[in-house]
Structures are given as C-alpha cells and as structure tokens.
Design a protein that fits this description.
The structure holds 3 protein chains of 3 kinds. Helices cover 35% and strands 27% of the residues of chain A. In chain A, helix 3 runs parallel beside helix 6. Chain A contains 10 helices and 10 strands. In chain A, the strands form 2 sheets. Chain A has a 6-stranded mixed beta sheet with strand order 6-7-8-3-9-10, sandwiched between helices. Chain B is mainly α. By secondary structure, chain C is mostly helical. Chain C has a single domain, classed as ABC transporter involved in vitamin B12 uptake, BtuC. Chain C is built from 14 helices and 2 strands; from the N terminus they run αααααβααααβααααα. The chains are: A alpha/beta, B mainly alpha, C mainly alpha. Chains in contact: A-B, B-C. At the B-C interface, helix 4, helix 9 and helix 11 of B face helix 5, helix 11 and helix 13 of C. Chain A: It holds the Pfam family ABC_tran. Chain A: It comes from Rhodopila globiformis. Chain A: GO terms for molecular function: ATP binding; ATP hydrolysis activity; branched-chain amino acid transmembrane transporter activity.
Chain lengths: 233, 288, 330
C-alpha cells in the first residue's frame, strides 16, 4: 500500500542557501514518525516544504496518492494536512476561540469539534474570550495544537512542540498522542528533544545538514549511533 | 457670540461625520493592511466623478447611484490590491507607499484630462437645502445630519464586520502575522484584497456624500487624504471609533476657523491636528 | 581587492567627469536659453539628491520636501527685498531659516513611524504654505515679484544675471553632491547603509540610527532652502502656490529619483537628466507627461526597485561614485 506521505528527492533552497539536499522519506497511515536533528539540520524546511511555504523547491511530495508539491497551502490544508508551527504562531489579537475557529474554517470541516478541544484542554475553555497574546506559552501551545486538530487533518505536522515550555506542560501535551493516534491521525513530529520524540514515535529519521543520515525504529537502534549521527561525529 | 460659536460647533460635528467617512477606509488600510495609501483621497475624488457620470447618465439621484457605484468601487479596490499592491507587500513597506504615490498622480491627471479642471457638485435636489429647526434660531441641514448618521452606521457595521464575522477574523489574523497565516493555509492575498474591497465600499459612500456637500475637482484628492490621515492619527491608528472622534475634532476645529475665511479653516484643522498630536501622539483610542 | 578597473566603469566615470567639465564651462559655450535650462536642472538635482539621501539611506520618505523650498524662497524675499540685505547674504540666510524651521518640523514628524511620517511631512508643508499665504508683507495669497534693485544687485543686465544665477546653482549642486557623498562615506552613512541592508552589524557599527536619521533630515533643509532661493531668482517672484509647489519640488523629484534609482548617488543624477530629456518632448502634453512619469515610476518599482541605475549596475563591476565599502559586493 502506498504510504500516506512520501517525499522523494526533495531539495529546498532560500537564495543561495540550500536547506535540504534531495531527501526522501515516507510516512505510513497511522504512524507517528519523528524527525530529529540539530538546529539548522533542515527539519523546519521539510515541514514548510510539505505545507507549500518553502523557498525554491524541487522533487516530489505525494500525499494520499496525489502530488501536492505545486499546490497552494490552502489546498494542501483542505486535502488534510495541518501544521502546528514552530513557536505556536497564534494570532495574538484574536481570541482563543477565534484562533480555534480559523483552524476549523480552513480544514475539512469534520472530525473534532471545538467543544472536544475544550474537553482536552479545559484551561482553554476558561480563557476562550481572552486574546491569544495574553496566554502563557503552554496554553498557547495547546491552542495551536487545537487549531491544527480542528482542521480535521489526516496528517498532523508538529514543529517543536516542546520548545520553551516547562517539562510538566510538555508532558501534558504529549499525553494526548495516544488520543490523537486513536482518531486515526498520522503524526510527524519535529523535535530537538530527542528522548521525548523517540519515546512516542514508531520510526524516526535523523537529519544532518539537510540530508537524511539515519533512519529506523527507536527500539532497534542503538542510542550512541543516534547521537553520533545527530551531531555528525 | 456664544450662540454663534455653538452653532459653528454643531456644524463642525456634522462636518466631522463627512471627514470620518473619508478616513474610515484609510483607517482600515493603515490598521489592517499596514500601509498608507497616498492615493486614498484621489480614489475618493475618482469615485465622485464616477458617481456624477452615473447620476447624469441614468438620471438618478446620487444616493440611489450607490447601488451601482459601491460594487464597482469594491471591484476596483480589490483589483488594485490583488494585481498591483500585493506584488510589493511583504517587501519594504515604503515601496507600497511610492506605488500609491504614482497612482495618485495618475488619477489626478487622468481626471484632469477626462473632465477638465472645473469644479463639480453632485445634484442632490431638495436634499441639499432641506433643514431642520432644532431650537429657535438653530437650524441643522438634513444632508449633513444624514452624513453624520451614515458615518456612525458605517463605523458600527465595520466594527461588526471586523470583530464579529468570519471574514473579519481572517482579516485580523492575516494582519497580525502574515507568515503564520500563510503557513496554516489562510489565503492571505485574497484576504487582503477582500479587505481592500471593503475599503472601496467606504470610499464610494464617502465620495457620494462629499460630492453632495462640497465642490470637487481633479485636484481635490490630496486635501481629502490629509484630512483622512489626520482623523486616523488623532483617533489612534487602527481604531474605527477613534477615527470618528478624530474626524469630529477636525470638523469642529475647521468650522471654528472657517468663521474667518477659507484659508483659516484649513489652517485651524492642520494646527489642531499638530497640537493634539504633540500632546497625545498615540491618538485618542490607541489599538497598538 | 583587484586594483584594475573594468572598462565599463572607467567609461562611466569618464562620462561623469565630462559632464562636470561641461557644466563648468557652460557659460562660455551655451546660449542663455540653455543656461537657463541647466540652472533649472542643477536646482532639481539638488532636490533629487536630498530626497534620495532621506528615502534611499535614512529610511525617511518625505512627501513634504517642498516646504523647505518654499521657506527658502520666502526667507530670501524677506531678507533681500524687505530687509534689503545683499542677495548673496540673503541666499545664505534663507538656507539658515530653512534649517531653523526644520527643527520644529522634525520634532513633530519624527514622532510618526515610517510610512506615517511621509504624510506627516505633507501636513507640515501644507501648513507652512497656508501660513505663507497669510503674510501680507509677502503678497498674501497671490504673491509678489522680486523688486528690481534686488535683481540689479546681481547684474546690470538680464544676461549677466542669468550667468550669475547659473554659477550659484552650480556651486550649490556641487556642494550638495560632494558633501552628501562625504556624509555617506562617513560613519553615519555606513551605519545607515548597514541598517538599510538589514545587516545584523547595523548596531555594531556603533552609530545611533535615530540620531543619524535626524541628522540627515536636518542636513537636507538648508540645501532645499538654498535651492528655493535660487529658484526664486529664476522665477523672479514668490507665491504660495508656486514657491511651495508640490508638483515641481516634490512630485517630480520623487519620480526622478525613483526612476533613476533610489539609494545610489548615480540614480538621482540619471533620473534628473532623463526628466529634462522627457520634458523637452512631453511638456506640451501636460497631464500625459505626469501620467507617464507616474506609470514609469510604478513600473520601475515593480521591475527593479533600485531604478534604472539598478539595471545598469547589474552590468558594472562597481558604482561610479563608490559610497560604501560594500561597493564590490555583487
């Protein structure tokens, strides 16, 4: 069976800087796949390219049987891919509820409802009429995850969920992964926090300077080998 | 003397309604699209000429012609943003400014070429002269009153549109963080163009009421722009109700200055603006 | 760095030097008609250099540059005609008045950010113009002609005066060009260019950017005022509409610099030359002339924001007038 997402020979460059060099990877239906790598390895460029927001892109990106490399972002989201951007990127002057509504609005209009997001994150219910800019980092991350889930994605891309958050908060957010899987949503996790992402993923790809240098299943791969490839030693 | 000043103040408040109309579109442009449209006044004058052409061509009242002119104006502003201004948004904002500067000069001279330098007025019929006696000796023109009321309704509608509608939320989202909006799939070029179409609707209404109350000619645009800009800054950048307040302050200042002569009317408006701006640079109701 | 220069750059610099020599010997070569056009050219060049300094380097787009031209014109009239000070001194004093009035203007408009500042300068200019129209000693709303004694002080016959005014304009333009060049090569200029190019080192250059921008704003005022005084000597009268003409002293100037190329010293020169060439052929077409310039400037911004000079620059190894050490970057 064809994987849900397959990337083949993908290169991305911004001006003279080439962020990705002909990388290939595949994500199967229902999998949780982690993309790990140091700062500047090209992880965010990969996600941005899938979303149709990278610089110059060459290569193929196939999702659910169709080539999406040339599609505009709204069409990609409508096809069933949603992103939780690095740094949350909520719209600060909009209320929590408005931020969530935008997610619903852009997506496939099915699956989760706003009420279910509030059930997952009760703190958001209490703050739904506050401006997103006034939320704490953890609350913003919950709202950003909620916004992406409301688009009813088949594939959820998470960019650095744990960045800048207290471990306790990160635990609560990661505790939702089983629930997300149960709903049949495929997940690609980009993380610098290796142990966190290896703990929840089925498979991983390790990027170094824009290339895939290692891939496999966490249980079958030796930690030292991962660390060596991570730092390029 | 006191009665005369009170009368001038009332006329000024009513005039402020017209100035608020000029300024509403600019307030949206500044607050949401984050650029200053130097051609704003000239576009309003262009629409006044268009209204004049529609009125005389079809033999209908200017207010009725809005049915036709508003959609045309929306389309014009939408296309302007989508085809021209969008191409430089996201780059240095000064490029947008310079492009609108070029548009302003093209409109002024295009109108001069097409319509000549004569001053014009829209044919308002009985509405132009109708008055209402508020108190013994105090008369208020029906048209200025209608203008102020329309301006208030426009502010209220725009406020609803921006803060209570789906399009409004999208517009504010794109305005907050374009890059994030693009990343999660908002079609920002279309959203900005839609916002500009809303600006076009306000400009068409402003053009109609301006043409009914004041003379206009191809060179009237810049003074309209300056008044609109002053109202926007006085009100607080991006605040719609503030723009109404700013327009009224300018209207009152001009009206009192106008007791002397036309030049003092303009001087009083600009001087009041500069003075208040020095004392309160963030405006009456700052949003940001 | 290579010492050898590309032949194109050498040729370009030769053209530049030839142009300067031509201006220096013009009174002996050309007739009075040409001298008059050249005087106007030099005045416009000063305005273009000043707008370019602000928009191209200091990130200050002004739409109110005509304010200081008009102030210079009125101040010159005041000193020369009313106070009867000798014209050369009156011209210099006019520059000083422009500088003095630039201080309060700056205090107001610099409270506005980037784009809003543009319209702010326009409001200030409008106010100055309206006030000028209220000065009855200066002819009120309709203006007044320069009295004959003022003109006689420059030369007995009109032909002599033409030449004297030409020399004044040439000295002003040369001073504006070379001093602005030196300013851009100074630490202030380097800091501004680092800011413009969005380099992280902008702060590291150690230049206070706010003060650098203010310096540039104040820098332009006396030059604009002097240009206004010289323009008055050519037009022989002052009036609010003509002395504070936004079309002549701001609109044309912006178009010239945008078309020629913002952010270089060659751009304003090129744009102003092109303006006078176009004017020769198009001035009969009034409105079409302005519409064409407007369309041309929009097209230039869309195609190459650095203007015609930006297009030429792609084919050259370096600037003809190197203003920064980044000159050889591309």
């Amino acid at each position: 069976m064809e994987p849900l997402l397959s990337v083949h020979g993908l290169s991305v460059s911004y001006g003279r800087f080439q962020a990705l060099h002909e990388i290939s990877l595949a994500v199967g239906r229902g999998e949780v796949v982690a993309i790990i790598g140091a700062n500047g390895a090209g992880k965010s460029s990969l996600l941005n390219a899938i979303m149709g927001q990278a610089g110059r892109v060459s290569g193929a990106i196939r999702f659910a049987g169709r080539d999406i490399a040339a599609l505009p972002t709204p069409a990609i989201v409508a096809a069933g891919i949603a992103l939780v951007p690095e740094g949350r990127r909520l719209f600060p002057s909009l209320t929590v509820e408005e931020n969530l509504a935008i997610g619903w609005d852009l997506g496939r209009r099915g699956g989760l409802r706003v009420a279910e997001i509030y059930a997952m994150f009760p703190v958001l219910l209490a703050r739904r009429h506050q401006r997103a800019g006034q939320l704490s980092g953890g609350e913003q991350q919950m709202a950003a995850l909620g916004r992406a889930l409301l688009a009813d994605p088949r594939l959820l891309l998470c960019d650095e969920l744990s960045l800048g958050l207290a471990p306790r908060i990160v635990d609560r957010i990661y505790a939702l992964m089983p629930e997300i899987r149960r709903r049949g949503i495929t997940v690609v996790l980009v993380e610098q926090d290796i142990s966190r992402s290896l703990a929840v993923c089925d498979r991983f790809y390790c990027l170094l300077e824009g290339r895939v240098v290692l891939s496999g299943r966490p249980a079958e791969t030796d930690r030292d080998s991962i660390m060596q490839h991570y730092f390029g030693a | 003397m006191a009665a005369a000043i009170a009368d001038q103040a009332i006329q000024g408040v009513l005039l402020g309604g017209l100035y608020c109309m000029f300024a509403l579109g600019l307030s949206l442009t500044v607050g949401v699209l984050r650029f200053v449209n130097i051609a704003h006044g000239d576009l309003i004058v262009l629409l006044s000429f268009l209204t004049l052409a529609v009125c005389t061509g079809l033999g209908i009242h200017p207010l009725l012609s809005l049915v036709l002119v508003v959609p045309l104006s929306c389309a014009l502003f939408y296309a302007l943003q989508r085809l021209l201004l969008q191409r430089v948004t996201g780059q240095n904002p000064l490029l947008v400014l310079l492009i609108t500067f070029g548009i302003a000069i093209i409109i002024q001279n295009g109108l001069l070429q097409g319509f000549g330098a004569d001053t014009r007025k829209l044919p308002g019929g009985a509405l132009e002269t109708a008055t209402w006696q508020v108190a013994p000796g105090l008369y208020v023109g029906i048209l200025p009153l209608l203008t102020l009321l329309t301006a208030i309704v426009m502010v209220w509608l725009l406020d609803l549109l921006l803060y209570r509608s789906r399009l409004g939320a999208r517009i504010r989202a794109a305005s907050d963080d374009v890059a994030a909006a693009n990343l999660i799939g908002l079609p920002t070029p279309r959203i900005f163009a839609a916002a500009m179409a809303v600006v076009g609707a306000t400009a068409a209404v402003a053009a109609c009421f301006m043409g009914l109350q004041m003379n206009f000619d191809p060179a009237s645009g810049p003074s309209r722009l300056l008044i609109a800009f002053e109202a926007v800054v006085l009100g607080g950048l991006g605040s719609l109700w503030g723009t109404l307040a700013g327009g009224i302050v300018l209207g009152v200042a001009q009206s009192i200055g106008g007791e002397f002569d036309a030049a003092w009317q303009a001087i009083a408006g600009h001087a009041a603006f500069l003075l208040i701006f020095l004392l309160r640079p963030q405006g009456f109701f700052p949003k940001y | 760095m290579l010492r050898s220069q590309s032949p194109r750059v050498v040729a370009g610099r030769a053209v530049l030097v030839a142009g300067m020599l031509m201006l220096a010997v013009a009174p002996w070569v050309f007739g009075l008609g040409t001298i008059s056009v050249l005087t106007e050219f030099l005045t416009m060049l000063v305005l273009a250099l000043m707008w370019n300094l602000l928009a191209g380097y200091a990130d200050v787009v002004t739409v109110g540059q005509h304010a200081f031209v008009g102030i210079g014109a009125y101040a010159f009239y005041g000193f020369a005609a009313l106070a009867q000070i000798r014209p050369p001194a009156a011209i210099l004093l006019a520059g000083l008045v422009a500088l003095a009035l630039a201080l309060p203007a700056m205090a107001i408009v610099f409270r506005l950010r980037a784009m809003y500042l543009a319209i702010g300068t326009w409001v200030v200019a409008e106010l100055f113009m309206l006030v000028a129209g209220k000065l009855s000693a200066f002819g009120g709303g309709s203006g007044v002609s320069l009295p004959l004694p003022v003109l006689r002080a420059l030369g007995a016959r009109p032909a002599e005066r033409f030449i004297v005014v030409y020399w004044l304009a040439l000295v002003l333009a040369a001073t504006a060009f070379f001093s602005t060049w030196l300013l851009l090569r100074s630490r202030v200029g380097i800091g501004l260019m680092a800011m413009r190019d969005n380099e992280e080192g902008a702060g590291a250059v150690g230049v206070d950017l706010v003060r650098a921008r203010m310096l540039c704003f104040l820098w332009t005022a006396p030059f604009l005022g002097l240009a206004g005084a010289i323009a008055t000597l050519q037009k022989l009268r002052i009036s609010p509409a003509a002395s504070f003409s936004i079309i002549d002293y701001t609109v044309f100037v912006i178009f010239n610099v945008v078309i020629g190329g913002v952010g270089s010293l060659e751009g304003p020169v090129l744009g102003t030359i092109l303006f006078f060439v176009l004017r020769e052929y198009l001035s009969d077409f009034g409105t079409w002339h302005l519409m064409l310039l407007g369309a041309l400037s929009i097209a230039v911004i869309l195609i190459e924001p650095r203007g015609l000079w930006g297009l030429i620059r792609r084919r050259l190894a370096r600037d003809l007038v190197p203003v920064s050490h980044h000159g050889s970057r591309l």
